[in-house]
Write a structure and sequence with these properties.
Blueprint (H helix, E strand, L loop, with lengths): L5 E4 L8 H9 L4 E8 H5 L3 H7 L9 E5 L3 H13 L4 E6 L4 H4 L11 H12 L6 E8 L7 H10 L5 E7 L10 H8 L6 E4 L5 H8 L4 E6 L9 H11 L7 H19 L1 H15 L6 H8 L5 H11 L1
Parallel strand pairs: 1-2, 1-8, 2-3, 3-4, 4-5, 5-6, 6-7, 7-8
């Protein structure tokens, strides 16, 4: 699965949902990870968690991300996900958001390597569960865990490791330290995927060319730009600076609205669509006035009319 230079859509809560994953698939992303799902929620039958788990028909291979801190709960949740059609399980060990960290999950595991390893060991027990882990480079600048986590993941047969080379305390400030990640990846016994500050095709290509990189994972760089995966592929494979024309952009944006309405219904779909439209409109002539008016519109028909006027 990780044998070539791949582009991957990152797991983003409330954003990398089924509609957005389908759009990115249509533009050639190699792999797409689900939104972050609570392992405990799956095990205890939480309805929202089960809904998040349901794959889109285009989700193949289907890569599901779980978060939690209890090894046996995560193992059981992973088995539930596999039974629901997942092909691969990603364990979040890097989310710095307080409500996740305070439960001992996400980036809290960077401060507790023994617990992180216990999770990997549980997933690697017979029968082994195909899994990956996603981390940050450490909790803060005083802590160095990247080499340790790469070693543990390799020892316990993880299929790959993704690292966003910022510390947890940095959140999204400062710059991702790609040099640190490259140094660690070159000696890794498993595929290493890089994430962070990949906001344009050229930067993604440069990251893919770094020694030891099996792939790149794009999160914020894909918001309002799901076609970035085709832009990267055209540049990587053909050396072509491709970009969608206005007609294709408009078609894609309107399609996203249709997918959101089908997925969530009129009310929730509308709220989510307005959020995405703020990203889609960046850089367009008249975008400032469009965004100012955006949150006064209360129906899909009004939004579609405003979008057509913008283009």
């Amino acid at each position: 699965m990780f044998s070539q230079k791949q582009t991957i859509l990152a797991p983003m809560a409330g954003l990398s949902d089924r509609p957005f994953r389908r759009l990115c698939r249509s533009f050639g992303v190699d792999l797409a990870v689900s939104e972050m799902i609570s392992a405990k929620g799956l095990v205890y039958g939480d309805r929202k968690s089960r809904v998040l788990l349901t794959p889109d028909k285009s989700d193949r291979p289907y890569w599901v991300q779980l978060f939690g801190s209890d090894p046996e709960i995560i193992r059981e949740a992973a088995q539930i996900a596999l039974q629901a059609g997942a092909d691969l399980i990603d364990i979040n060990m890097g989310c710095p958001v307080r409500k996740v960290v305070k439960t001992g999950a996400g980036a809290a595991l960077l401060r507790d390597p023994q617990q992180a390893e216990a999770i990997m060991r549980a997933l690697d027990r017979t029968p082994a569960i195909p899994y990956t882990i996603k981390i940050r480079s450490g909790w803060d600048a005083k802590q160095t865990i990247l080499d340790l986590f790469i070693e543990m993941a390799g020892t316990h047969n993880a299929k790959a490791l993704t690292c966003h080379p910022r510390t947890a305390t940095m959140m999204f400030s400062g710059c991702a330290d790609w040099r640190q990640l490259t140094d660690a990846a070159q000696n890794a016994a498993l595929p290493v995927i890089g994430s962070g500050d990949l906001n344009d095709p050229q930067t993604a290509i440069e990251a893919l060319a770094r020694p030891g990189m099996a792939g790149v994972m794009l999160g914020r760089g894909s918001l309002g730009r799901p076609w970035i995966f085709r832009e990267i592929r055209e540049l990587l494979q053909k050396g072509i600076q491709w970009s969608p024309d206005a007609e294709l952009k408009l078609k894609t944006i309107l399609k996203h609205g249709d997918l959101l309405r089908d997925e969530y219904g009129e009310k929730t779909g509308l709220l989510l669509y307005r959020k995405h439209l703020a990203w889609y409109s960046k850089g367009l002539s008249g975008a400032s006035a469009f965004r100012k008016n955006l949150f006064t519109l209360t129906s899909f028909s009004e939004l579609e009319s405003a979008i057509n006027n913008l283009f």
